[in-house]
Amino acid sequence: MNRILKLEELVLFIISLYLFWQTNLSLWCMAGFLLSDIGMIGYLVNNKSGAWMYNLFHHRGIAAIILLTGWQGEIEWLYIAGLFMFGHIAMDRLFGYGLKYHDSFHHTHLGWIGKKQE
Length: 118
Hints:
Blueprint: H1 2-22, H2 47-57, H3 60-72, H4 76-94, E1 107-108, E2 111-112
Antiparallel strand pairs: 1-2
């Protein structure tokens, strides 16, 4: 099952790269894929606020709403922000970084980061 989930995330990441390529933006703009990690700033306060903020910036539904709103409203910067979020989320989950529980940064909905999944 783990392989199927990772394959799904890989496909979503490739789709996001393809859609980014369609924008004709410079490749250096790809650094925007990392913007979702601003949500980790909450961990400077404590695990609970860190998990809440991280999950807000890494929720696929929120990314899809931002992306679709930008696309439908023809608001390019919003479309690109949603695209970056969507791609970043797929990349994170491909590497095993899921939505966080409040007890530890390493405890995610995909399991524990760094533990061998069976």
